[in-house]
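Q: I'm writing up a methods section and want to include an example of the input and output format. Could you take the sequence below and give the corresponding predicted structure tokens, formatted cleanly so I can copy it straight into the document?
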Amino acid sequence: MLVVRRLALLVSALVAATLLGGCAIGSLGPDPSPRAGLDCVDDSDVCVRQRGAALRSLMADKSNKWVREPATPAAHASGVRLFAYRGKRRELSCADLHHGKREAEQAATGLRRSGGGLTPAQISRASMLGAEVARELAGEIRRRCRGARR
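A: Here is the clean output for your methods example:
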């Protein structure tokens, strides 16, 4: 039994050291803005981490100020804003839900017009995600915003 406890303690220590080591390595470079990942559309490790940080930043914003900030085609292509709408849909006001639904519906049009170096696959994925998020937000609007049309 003592051997099992020591082994468990050793494994826990190794896991903690690995996690802390990863944090230390990640902090060697400049610390970008938490929202830097909004426009990061490639699948590199750096971009994936930046998108995760951007999504966490949007999800932590209790005022939901980001909803009213203009969105770029790259922000839609990265999926960060669309995933944030999906994740926060139960917390958003009816006005914010309507705004998000319009944004999600218009994402495909903005992506196709952007000409900003996005690949057809990126445009297609983001367009499908936008349509899916628009449907989810429409459902939330139907459930909660009966008299609130915008």
